[in-house]
Design goal:
Blueprint (H helix, E strand, L loop, with lengths): L2 H14 L2 H8 L3 H15 L4 E3 L4 E3 L1 H26 L6 E7 L1 H18 L3 E7 L13 E5 L8 E14 L1 H7 L5 H4 L8 E4 L2 E3 L1 E5 L4 E5 L5 E2 L2 H9 L5 E4 H9 L4 E2 L5 E11 L7 H15 L20 H7 L1
Parallel strand pairs: 3-4, 3-5, 7-11
Antiparallel strand pairs: 1-2, 5-14, 6-12, 6-13, 6-14, 7-8, 9-10, 9-14
């Protein structure tokens, strides 16, 4: 038995929670993984795992062994990193998780620059707006929008996502331009809602320089993807609270107009999170530094004020007339 491989396999089983997920993440058959764990248990002469049909849980001895093995593997990785740092550039596979709007709007258009800077790093990008099981899916790090609820993860804040209220000229021609948040709540306007895990959000916190309100709007459509939200707004299905960096290109060509320009939705914190047992290895460290620099210049992009609905210099004169 290759004891080091067996130890790494044991750690993956604990983190993934099932043999199937662990085997998939390592890239070996489930039967081979099971034999590695059995050999390890025979060598140690004690069961390390309690197996059930749904999940694998460490025994008391297994939990103690897991802590020791993780510490040992981290020390080995640190040693290898220190030895190779002077002569070798960051290398290896880096698995990154990200919401779709960050992936498509910021990360993927810029990732070639990172690949050119670090050609020995191979990047796997998992895209989705659902909460990611970082340990179970063997993800090295993930971009997380909103508060980080998992206390077991290391979190580094890399920015704030500013959000604004937008609508298409077609929608505003049909329903008019609201002059205050109360105009939206009177039932004459529609706001495209966002839902996650079956929970639809109809209420948004809006704030200006000197005021704050809770906007409760009528909704006829809800989506669970940021780009679907933009598409729905472009189609004139309603007003939408959209991330500023996603709205900017459509505002630049006047297919979306900013509504209530003196108000904005509460910003959402953006963190990069990773498991503490992954440590800050070289490839993870350079990626975090790179993505933090990239996001600093990408999250606040906004075109000129002529894209504001209701302003005299707005390009679409029909919209201007509706606002007076």
């Amino acid at each position: 038995m290759d004891k080091l491989s067996a130890m790494k396999a044991f750690v993956r089983v604990i983190e993934a929670g099932t043999f199937t997920k662990a085997a998939d993440s390592i890239g070996i058959p489930k039967g081979q993984l099971s034999r590695l764990i059995q050999s390890l248990e025979q060598t140690l002469r004690t069961p390390l795992l309690n197996r059930s049909t749904r999940r694998v849980i460490a025994t008391p001895d297994g939990a103690s062994y897991y802590e020791c093995v993780v510490r040992l593997l981290n020390e080995m990785e640190d040693l290898e990193t220190r030895i190779s740092r002077a002569t070798a550039s960051p290398r290896g596979k880096l698995r990154v998780g990200t919401p779709s709007e960050i992936a498509n709007g910021i990360l993927l258009p810029a990732i070639d620059e990172f690949c050119g800077r670090y050609p020995d790093i191979e990047i796997d990008i998992t895209v989705g707006d659902r909460p990611m099981d970082i340990l179970g899916e063997n993800i090295d790090c993930a971009l997380h929008v909103g508060r980080v609820m998992d206390p077991s993860l290391v979190a580094r804040k890399v920015g704030d996502i500013r959000r604004i209220l937008c609508a298409s000229p077609t929608y505003l021609e049909r329903f008019g331009v609201p002059q205050s948040p109360s105009d939206i709540e009177n039932g004459q306007h529609r706001v495209i809602s966002y839902f996650l895990k079956g929970c639809v959000r109809h209420q948004y916190a809006l704030q200006s320089s000197d005021d704050r309100c809770e906007l409760v709007a009528t909704s006829t459509i809800a989506v669970d993807d940021g780009y679907a939200m933009v598409s729905a707004a472009l189609a004139g299905l309603g007003m939408a609270v959209i991330s500023m960096f996603m709205a900017a290109p459509h505002m630049a060509n006047h297919t979306l107009l900013r509504v209530l320009p003196d108000w904005h939705a509460s910003a959402l914190p953006l963190h990069i999170v990773y498991p503490p047992n992954r440590r800050m290895n070289a490839k993870l460290r350079v990626f975090i530094d790179w993505i933090a620099e990239l996001l600093a210049g990408s999250l606040t992009t906004l075109p000129a004020q002529e894209t504001f609905a209701g302003r005299p210099d707005v390009v679409d004169k029909t919209i201007t007339k509706l606002a007076v």
